[in-house]
Amino acid sequence: MVARVMVTFQVVREPLIGPFAFKAHEINELWQAIVGLPDGAGGIDWGLGAQSPVWGDPMVVDVAGIDGANMMMAAITGHAARVAADLPADLDPVEVQARLMPEVLLLAREMTNESIAESFVMNALVPIDQAMWQRWARRHEIRDFADLIPPSVRPYLPVDPATAPPAAEIPLVSPTTGAEEIGELLARGLPLLKIRIGADPNRDKDPSAMLNFDANRVIEVAAMVDRAEQAGATGVRLYLDANGRYPDKATLLTLLDRIDDAGALHRIALVEEPLPVANDEHLGDLPVPIGGDESAFDTASVERRAATGYSVIAVKPSAKTLTRSFAMIEAAGRAGMNCLVADLTAPPLLVAWNREVASRLTPLPGLERATFETNGAQNYLNWADLTARLPQQQPGEPAPNLIDLAGHYLPGYGE
Protein backbone atom coordinates (compact mmCIF):
# COMPACT_ATOMS: atom_id res chain seq x y z
CA MET A 1 0.00 0.00 0.00
CA VAL A 2 1.27 3.47 -0.91
CA ALA A 3 0.78 5.96 1.92
CA ARG A 4 -0.80 9.27 1.03
CA VAL A 5 1.24 12.35 1.81
CA MET A 6 -0.38 14.72 4.27
CA VAL A 7 -1.94 17.92 2.97
CA THR A 8 -3.04 21.00 4.86
CA PHE A 9 -6.60 22.10 4.19
CA GLN A 10 -8.53 24.69 6.16
CA VAL A 11 -11.42 27.09 5.65
CA VAL A 12 -11.62 30.52 7.28
CA ARG A 13 -14.96 32.30 7.17
CA GLU A 14 -14.16 35.99 6.71
CA PRO A 15 -17.01 38.34 7.70
CA LEU A 16 -18.00 41.22 5.45
CA ILE A 17 -18.65 44.81 6.50
CA GLY A 18 -22.29 44.45 5.50
CA PRO A 19 -24.60 42.35 3.32
CA PHE A 20 -23.28 41.93 -0.22
CA ALA A 21 -26.07 41.70 -2.82
CA PHE A 22 -25.10 39.48 -5.73
CA LYS A 23 -27.22 37.68 -8.35
CA ALA A 24 -30.40 38.05 -6.28
CA HIS A 25 -28.62 36.56 -3.24
CA GLU A 26 -27.18 38.21 -0.15
CA ILE A 27 -23.75 37.28 1.22
CA ASN A 28 -22.48 38.12 4.71
CA GLU A 29 -19.15 36.28 4.66
CA LEU A 30 -16.64 34.83 2.21
CA TRP A 31 -15.02 31.46 2.84
CA GLN A 32 -11.25 31.42 2.34
CA ALA A 33 -9.88 28.00 1.36
CA ILE A 34 -6.26 27.37 2.40
CA VAL A 35 -4.24 24.52 0.92
CA GLY A 36 -0.72 23.41 1.79
CA LEU A 37 0.84 20.76 -0.44
CA PRO A 38 4.11 19.00 0.47
CA ASP A 39 6.68 19.78 -2.22
CA GLY A 40 8.55 16.47 -1.95
CA ALA A 41 11.64 18.16 -0.52
CA GLY A 42 10.50 18.91 3.01
CA GLY A 43 8.71 22.17 2.24
CA ILE A 44 5.11 23.22 1.66
CA ASP A 45 3.59 25.01 -1.32
CA TRP A 46 0.71 27.21 -0.18
CA GLY A 47 -2.40 28.35 -2.01
CA LEU A 48 -5.46 30.45 -1.19
CA GLY A 49 -8.88 30.69 -2.77
CA ALA A 50 -11.83 32.98 -2.05
CA GLN A 51 -15.00 30.94 -2.52
CA SER A 52 -17.90 32.49 -4.42
CA PRO A 53 -20.47 29.79 -5.17
CA VAL A 54 -23.04 32.42 -6.18
CA TRP A 55 -20.67 33.56 -8.94
CA GLY A 56 -19.71 29.98 -9.81
CA ASP A 57 -23.23 28.59 -10.19
CA PRO A 58 -26.21 30.32 -8.55
CA MET A 59 -28.39 27.28 -9.29
CA VAL A 60 -26.36 25.32 -6.73
CA VAL A 61 -27.02 28.07 -4.18
CA ASP A 62 -30.73 28.05 -5.03
CA VAL A 63 -30.87 24.34 -4.15
CA ALA A 64 -28.37 24.04 -1.29
CA GLY A 65 -28.32 27.54 0.20
CA ILE A 66 -25.21 29.68 0.66
CA ASP A 67 -23.65 27.53 3.40
CA GLY A 68 -24.47 24.30 1.60
CA ALA A 69 -22.92 25.54 -1.65
CA ASN A 70 -19.84 26.74 0.22
CA MET A 71 -19.47 23.31 1.82
CA MET A 72 -19.73 21.67 -1.61
CA MET A 73 -17.03 23.93 -3.02
CA ALA A 74 -14.79 23.31 -0.01
CA ALA A 75 -15.27 19.55 -0.41
CA ILE A 76 -14.18 19.81 -4.05
CA THR A 77 -11.09 21.80 -3.04
CA GLY A 78 -10.16 19.33 -0.32
CA HIS A 79 -10.56 16.35 -2.64
CA ALA A 80 -8.57 18.04 -5.41
CA ALA A 81 -5.77 18.86 -2.94
CA ARG A 82 -5.47 15.21 -1.92
CA VAL A 83 -5.38 14.09 -5.55
CA ALA A 84 -2.81 16.77 -6.44
CA ALA A 85 -0.58 15.71 -3.54
CA ASP A 86 -0.31 12.22 -5.06
CA LEU A 87 0.74 13.49 -8.50
CA PRO A 88 4.42 13.62 -9.51
CA ALA A 89 6.00 16.74 -8.03
CA ASP A 90 7.67 17.73 -11.31
CA LEU A 91 4.44 18.21 -13.30
CA ASP A 92 3.81 21.72 -14.57
CA PRO A 93 0.62 23.51 -13.41
CA VAL A 94 -1.08 23.05 -16.79
CA GLU A 95 -0.66 19.27 -16.63
CA VAL A 96 -1.78 19.18 -12.98
CA GLN A 97 -5.00 20.98 -13.88
CA ALA A 98 -5.57 18.72 -16.89
CA ARG A 99 -5.33 15.67 -14.63
CA LEU A 100 -7.52 17.14 -11.90
CA MET A 101 -10.41 18.47 -13.99
CA PRO A 102 -12.09 15.20 -15.07
CA GLU A 103 -12.08 13.81 -11.54
CA VAL A 104 -13.27 16.96 -9.77
CA LEU A 105 -15.95 17.63 -12.39
CA LEU A 106 -17.27 14.11 -11.84
CA LEU A 107 -17.31 14.64 -8.08
CA ALA A 108 -19.10 17.98 -8.44
CA ARG A 109 -21.77 16.46 -10.66
CA GLU A 110 -22.27 13.57 -8.27
CA MET A 111 -22.70 16.02 -5.39
CA THR A 112 -25.32 18.09 -7.20
CA ASN A 113 -26.96 15.18 -9.03
CA GLU A 114 -27.05 17.36 -12.15
CA SER A 115 -24.86 19.42 -14.43
CA ILE A 116 -22.84 22.13 -12.72
CA ALA A 117 -21.17 25.19 -14.21
CA GLU A 118 -17.47 24.65 -14.81
CA SER A 119 -16.80 28.06 -13.25
CA PHE A 120 -17.91 26.60 -9.88
CA VAL A 121 -15.23 23.93 -10.15
CA MET A 122 -12.58 26.38 -11.37
CA ASN A 123 -13.21 28.55 -8.31
CA ALA A 124 -12.62 25.48 -6.12
CA LEU A 125 -9.28 24.78 -7.84
CA VAL A 126 -7.75 28.24 -7.31
CA PRO A 127 -5.74 27.38 -4.15
CA ILE A 128 -4.30 24.21 -5.70
CA ASP A 129 -3.38 26.08 -8.87
CA GLN A 130 -1.67 28.86 -6.92
CA ALA A 131 0.35 26.32 -4.96
CA MET A 132 1.38 24.59 -8.20
CA TRP A 133 2.65 27.82 -9.77
CA GLN A 134 4.70 28.54 -6.66
CA ARG A 135 6.14 25.03 -6.79
CA TRP A 136 6.98 25.46 -10.47
CA ALA A 137 8.68 28.80 -9.79
CA ARG A 138 10.82 27.41 -6.98
CA ARG A 139 11.81 24.28 -8.88
CA HIS A 140 12.93 26.39 -11.83
CA GLU A 141 14.42 29.21 -9.72
CA ILE A 142 11.98 31.76 -11.14
CA ARG A 143 11.77 34.99 -9.18
CA ASP A 144 10.06 37.29 -11.69
CA PHE A 145 6.39 36.80 -12.59
CA ALA A 146 7.24 37.61 -16.22
CA ASP A 147 9.25 34.38 -16.39
CA LEU A 148 6.22 32.37 -15.26
CA ILE A 149 4.21 33.43 -18.31
CA PRO A 150 4.12 30.65 -20.94
CA PRO A 151 5.94 31.67 -24.16
CA SER A 152 2.78 31.42 -26.29
CA VAL A 153 0.98 33.85 -23.95
CA ARG A 154 3.69 36.52 -23.77
CA PRO A 155 2.70 38.33 -27.00
CA TYR A 156 -0.71 38.99 -25.41
CA LEU A 157 0.77 40.36 -22.17
CA PRO A 158 3.02 42.88 -23.91
CA VAL A 159 3.18 45.73 -21.39
CA ASP A 160 6.29 46.18 -19.25
CA PRO A 161 5.08 47.22 -15.77
CA ALA A 162 8.45 48.85 -15.08
CA THR A 163 7.88 51.47 -17.78
CA ALA A 164 4.07 51.75 -17.99
CA PRO A 165 1.81 53.72 -15.64
CA PRO A 166 0.67 51.55 -12.70
CA ALA A 167 -2.50 49.58 -13.31
CA ALA A 168 -5.46 51.49 -11.89
CA GLU A 169 -7.85 49.84 -9.46
CA ILE A 170 -11.53 49.50 -10.37
CA PRO A 171 -13.74 49.81 -7.27
CA LEU A 172 -17.27 48.45 -7.04
CA VAL A 173 -20.43 50.54 -6.86
CA SER A 174 -23.05 48.15 -5.51
CA PRO A 175 -26.79 48.86 -5.27
CA THR A 176 -26.22 49.94 -1.66
CA THR A 177 -23.11 52.11 -2.13
CA GLY A 178 -23.99 55.57 -0.87
CA ALA A 179 -23.38 58.95 -2.50
CA GLU A 180 -20.66 59.85 0.00
CA GLU A 181 -18.63 56.72 -0.77
CA ILE A 182 -19.08 57.20 -4.52
CA GLY A 183 -17.82 60.76 -4.11
CA GLU A 184 -14.75 59.45 -2.28
CA LEU A 185 -14.09 56.97 -5.10
CA LEU A 186 -14.36 59.72 -7.70
CA ALA A 187 -11.95 61.87 -5.70
CA ARG A 188 -9.28 59.18 -6.12
CA GLY A 189 -9.03 59.95 -9.83
CA LEU A 190 -9.68 56.38 -10.98
CA PRO A 191 -10.59 55.95 -14.67
CA LEU A 192 -13.30 53.29 -14.20
CA LEU A 193 -16.08 52.62 -11.73
CA LYS A 194 -17.78 49.24 -11.81
CA ILE A 195 -21.54 49.30 -11.27
CA ARG A 196 -23.24 46.04 -10.45
CA ILE A 197 -26.57 45.90 -12.28
CA GLY A 198 -29.16 43.14 -12.34
CA ALA A 199 -30.73 44.31 -9.09
CA ASP A 200 -33.69 42.59 -7.44
CA PRO A 201 -35.17 45.54 -5.52
CA ASN A 202 -38.39 43.78 -4.51
CA ARG A 203 -36.79 40.34 -3.98
CA ASP A 204 -39.21 38.80 -6.47
CA LYS A 205 -36.89 38.52 -9.52
CA ASP A 206 -39.16 40.83 -11.55
CA PRO A 207 -37.25 41.85 -14.73
CA SER A 208 -39.16 45.12 -15.17
CA ALA A 209 -38.34 46.20 -11.60
CA MET A 210 -34.72 45.24 -12.23
CA LEU A 211 -34.61 47.29 -15.42
CA ASN A 212 -36.09 50.39 -13.79
CA PHE A 213 -33.80 50.17 -10.77
CA ASP A 214 -30.69 49.61 -12.91
CA ALA A 215 -31.46 52.44 -15.33
CA ASN A 216 -32.08 54.91 -12.52
CA ARG A 217 -28.93 53.79 -10.70
CA VAL A 218 -26.64 54.10 -13.73
CA ILE A 219 -28.08 57.51 -14.61
CA GLU A 220 -27.66 58.64 -10.99
CA VAL A 221 -23.99 57.61 -10.88
CA ALA A 222 -23.34 59.13 -14.32
CA ALA A 223 -24.72 62.44 -13.05
CA MET A 224 -22.32 62.26 -10.10
CA VAL A 225 -19.47 61.70 -12.56
CA ASP A 226 -20.61 64.75 -14.55
CA ARG A 227 -20.48 66.88 -11.41
CA ALA A 228 -17.07 65.46 -10.47
CA GLU A 229 -15.71 66.37 -13.90
CA GLN A 230 -17.01 69.90 -13.52
CA ALA A 231 -14.96 70.02 -10.31
CA GLY A 232 -11.80 68.79 -12.04
CA ALA A 233 -12.03 65.01 -12.50
CA THR A 234 -11.29 63.77 -16.02
CA GLY A 235 -12.24 60.84 -18.21
CA VAL A 236 -14.22 58.70 -15.75
CA ARG A 237 -16.04 55.80 -17.42
CA LEU A 238 -18.52 53.23 -16.13
CA TYR A 239 -18.24 49.45 -16.35
CA LEU A 240 -21.58 47.67 -15.91
CA ASP A 241 -21.67 44.06 -14.71
CA ALA A 242 -25.02 42.30 -15.09
CA ASN A 243 -23.84 38.81 -14.04
CA GLY A 244 -26.16 37.22 -16.62
CA ARG A 245 -29.31 38.74 -15.12
CA TYR A 246 -30.78 40.23 -18.33
CA PRO A 247 -32.97 37.62 -20.02
CA ASP A 248 -32.36 38.69 -23.62
CA LYS A 249 -30.88 41.26 -25.98
CA ALA A 250 -34.15 43.21 -26.22
CA THR A 251 -34.21 43.87 -22.47
CA LEU A 252 -30.57 44.92 -22.52
CA LEU A 253 -31.29 47.30 -25.41
CA THR A 254 -34.10 48.87 -23.40
CA LEU A 255 -31.63 49.57 -20.59
CA LEU A 256 -29.11 51.12 -22.98
CA ASP A 257 -31.84 53.24 -24.59
CA ARG A 258 -32.85 54.56 -21.16
CA ILE A 259 -29.23 55.46 -20.41
CA ASP A 260 -28.85 57.06 -23.84
CA ASP A 261 -32.02 59.13 -23.39
CA ALA A 262 -30.47 60.53 -20.20
CA GLY A 263 -27.33 61.53 -22.11
CA ALA A 264 -25.11 59.07 -20.25
CA LEU A 265 -24.35 56.38 -22.84
CA HIS A 266 -20.94 57.90 -23.62
CA ARG A 267 -19.91 57.02 -20.06
CA ILE A 268 -20.28 53.27 -20.62
CA ALA A 269 -16.92 51.62 -21.30
CA LEU A 270 -18.17 48.03 -21.03
CA VAL A 271 -21.20 45.90 -20.21
CA GLU A 272 -20.05 42.57 -18.80
CA GLU A 273 -21.96 39.28 -18.92
CA PRO A 274 -25.36 40.82 -19.68
CA LEU A 275 -27.19 37.63 -20.71
CA PRO A 276 -27.51 34.13 -19.24
CA VAL A 277 -24.59 31.86 -20.08
CA ALA A 278 -26.64 29.75 -22.51
CA ASN A 279 -27.91 32.77 -24.47
CA ASP A 280 -25.91 33.13 -27.70
CA GLU A 281 -27.65 36.15 -29.20
CA HIS A 282 -25.20 38.24 -31.22
CA LEU A 283 -24.35 41.47 -29.39
CA GLY A 284 -21.72 42.90 -31.71
CA ASP A 285 -24.10 45.57 -33.05
CA LEU A 286 -24.79 47.19 -29.68
CA PRO A 287 -23.52 50.75 -29.09
CA VAL A 288 -21.18 49.70 -26.25
CA PRO A 289 -18.50 46.98 -25.90
CA ILE A 290 -19.72 43.68 -24.43
CA GLY A 291 -17.61 41.44 -22.20
CA GLY A 292 -17.86 37.82 -21.12
CA ASP A 293 -17.16 36.53 -17.62
CA GLU A 294 -19.04 33.47 -16.33
CA SER A 295 -19.71 32.37 -19.91
CA ALA A 296 -15.97 32.47 -20.73
CA PHE A 297 -14.06 29.84 -18.77
CA ASP A 298 -11.83 28.13 -21.35
CA THR A 299 -10.47 28.64 -24.86
CA ALA A 300 -13.56 27.19 -26.58
CA SER A 301 -15.94 29.48 -24.69
CA VAL A 302 -13.73 32.50 -25.44
CA GLU A 303 -13.99 31.66 -29.15
CA ARG A 304 -17.75 31.24 -28.77
CA ARG A 305 -18.04 34.68 -27.21
CA ALA A 306 -15.93 36.18 -30.00
CA ALA A 307 -18.34 34.66 -32.53
CA THR A 308 -21.32 36.29 -30.78
CA GLY A 309 -19.86 39.79 -30.96
CA TYR A 310 -18.24 40.11 -27.54
CA SER A 311 -15.02 42.15 -27.61
CA VAL A 312 -13.70 41.80 -24.03
CA ILE A 313 -13.02 38.78 -21.84
CA ALA A 314 -12.82 39.00 -18.05
CA VAL A 315 -9.95 36.87 -16.81
CA LYS A 316 -9.94 36.03 -13.13
CA PRO A 317 -6.82 34.38 -11.75
CA SER A 318 -8.56 34.55 -8.36
CA ALA A 319 -11.63 32.68 -9.65
CA LYS A 320 -10.75 30.79 -12.84
CA THR A 321 -7.14 29.95 -11.84
CA LEU A 322 -3.97 31.47 -13.24
CA THR A 323 -3.55 28.45 -15.53
CA ARG A 324 -6.93 28.91 -17.18
CA SER A 325 -6.47 32.70 -17.28
CA PHE A 326 -3.25 32.34 -19.27
CA ALA A 327 -5.01 30.09 -21.80
CA MET A 328 -7.94 32.50 -22.10
CA ILE A 329 -5.66 35.51 -22.60
CA GLU A 330 -3.99 33.71 -25.50
CA ALA A 331 -7.33 32.69 -27.04
CA ALA A 332 -8.74 36.20 -26.68
CA GLY A 333 -5.62 37.73 -28.19
CA ARG A 334 -5.79 35.42 -31.19
CA ALA A 335 -9.44 36.45 -31.67
CA GLY A 336 -8.59 40.16 -31.50
CA MET A 337 -10.33 40.65 -28.15
CA ASN A 338 -9.22 42.67 -25.14
CA CYS A 339 -8.88 41.22 -21.65
CA LEU A 340 -9.69 42.73 -18.28
CA VAL A 341 -8.70 41.34 -14.89
CA ALA A 342 -11.85 41.16 -12.79
CA ASP A 343 -12.15 40.51 -9.09
CA LEU A 344 -14.03 38.01 -6.97
CA THR A 345 -13.83 40.13 -3.83
CA ALA A 346 -10.30 38.83 -3.63
CA PRO A 347 -8.26 39.05 -0.41
CA PRO A 348 -4.91 40.89 -0.47
CA LEU A 349 -2.82 37.85 -1.44
CA LEU A 350 -4.92 37.17 -4.54
CA VAL A 351 -5.06 40.88 -5.39
CA ALA A 352 -1.25 40.82 -5.64
CA TRP A 353 -1.41 38.03 -8.25
CA ASN A 354 -4.25 39.77 -10.13
CA ARG A 355 -2.20 42.96 -10.30
CA GLU A 356 0.74 41.14 -11.90
CA VAL A 357 -1.48 39.96 -14.76
CA ALA A 358 -3.39 43.24 -15.15
CA SER A 359 -0.26 45.37 -15.31
CA ARG A 360 0.87 43.50 -18.44
CA LEU A 361 -2.39 43.75 -20.40
CA THR A 362 -3.07 46.31 -23.12
CA PRO A 363 -5.51 48.95 -21.76
CA LEU A 364 -9.14 48.74 -22.81
CA PRO A 365 -10.10 50.97 -25.76
CA GLY A 366 -10.51 54.56 -24.62
CA LEU A 367 -8.32 54.13 -21.53
CA GLU A 368 -4.72 55.23 -21.20
CA ARG A 369 -3.58 52.63 -18.68
CA ALA A 370 -4.35 49.11 -17.59
CA THR A 371 -7.05 48.57 -14.99
CA PHE A 372 -8.10 45.76 -12.68
CA GLU A 373 -11.07 45.31 -10.43
CA THR A 374 -10.55 45.07 -6.68
CA ASN A 375 -13.23 45.62 -4.07
CA GLY A 376 -11.94 43.69 -1.07
CA ALA A 377 -11.11 46.84 0.88
CA GLN A 378 -14.73 47.92 0.48
CA ASN A 379 -16.16 44.65 1.75
CA TYR A 380 -13.93 42.63 4.12
CA LEU A 381 -14.45 43.56 7.75
CA ASN A 382 -10.87 42.53 8.58
CA TRP A 383 -9.18 43.98 5.48
CA ALA A 384 -6.50 45.81 7.48
CA ASP A 385 -5.57 42.63 9.35
CA LEU A 386 -5.46 40.63 6.12
CA THR A 387 -3.24 43.22 4.45
CA ALA A 388 -0.90 43.15 7.46
CA ARG A 389 -0.26 39.44 6.79
CA LEU A 390 1.70 40.41 3.67
CA PRO A 391 5.38 41.30 4.15
CA GLN A 392 5.96 45.02 3.91
CA GLN A 393 8.70 46.58 1.82
CA GLN A 394 11.42 48.04 4.00
CA PRO A 395 13.27 51.28 3.16
CA GLY A 396 16.19 50.63 0.86
CA GLU A 397 15.15 47.02 0.21
CA PRO A 398 13.51 45.47 -2.87
CA ALA A 399 9.79 44.75 -2.79
CA PRO A 400 8.81 41.33 -1.40
CA ASN A 401 8.79 38.71 -4.14
CA LEU A 402 5.36 37.59 -5.34
CA ILE A 403 6.37 33.92 -5.26
CA ASP A 404 7.09 34.17 -1.52
CA LEU A 405 3.91 35.99 -0.48
CA ALA A 406 1.76 32.93 0.25
CA GLY A 407 4.42 31.54 2.57
CA HIS A 408 4.13 34.71 4.65
CA TYR A 409 0.36 35.16 4.42
CA LEU A 410 -1.07 31.68 4.97
CA PRO A 411 0.81 29.82 7.75
CA GLY A 412 -1.09 30.48 10.97
CA TYR A 413 -3.98 32.22 9.21
CA GLY A 414 -7.25 31.45 10.97
CA GLU A 415 -5.65 30.07 14.12
Automatic annotation (TrEMBL):
InterPro entries: Enolase-like_C_sf (IPR036849), Enolase_C-like (IPR029065), Mandelate_racemase_C (IPR013342). SUPFAM superfamilies: Enolase C-terminal domain-like. Residues 175-289 form the Mandelate racemase/muconate lactonizing enzyme C-terminal domain. Transmembrane segments: none annotated. This is Mandelate racemase/muconate lactonizing enzyme C-terminal domain-containing protein.
